[in-house]
């Protein structure tokens, strides 16, 4: 339970930083590339939408994140993602480097960057 409090605290700090108008060092504007695809920071996935929403709330709620904002996505709606999961993701970002520059790894050690359309 102690580690869960740390994750919530770090996510809360990220939310405060965004509300104050500060962006993580090197972070770029979120968005899609010319083909309509973008880069996402995947913070966790589940077969259950309810479980994914619970994880999102534990991380600080919708739109917390590195500028693009985190939310639950249905991977069946995105080419490049394995269908059948609900993932907490921050994005889209224009490039892998932009997504990789966001400091989610401190809050979620298993976070990774993935491209989806």
TrEMBL record:
Position of the signal peptide: 1-22
Assigned keywords, A-Z: Signal
Domain of life (superkingdom): Bacteria
Name of the protein this chain belongs to: Secreted protein
Source species: Hoeflea alexandrii
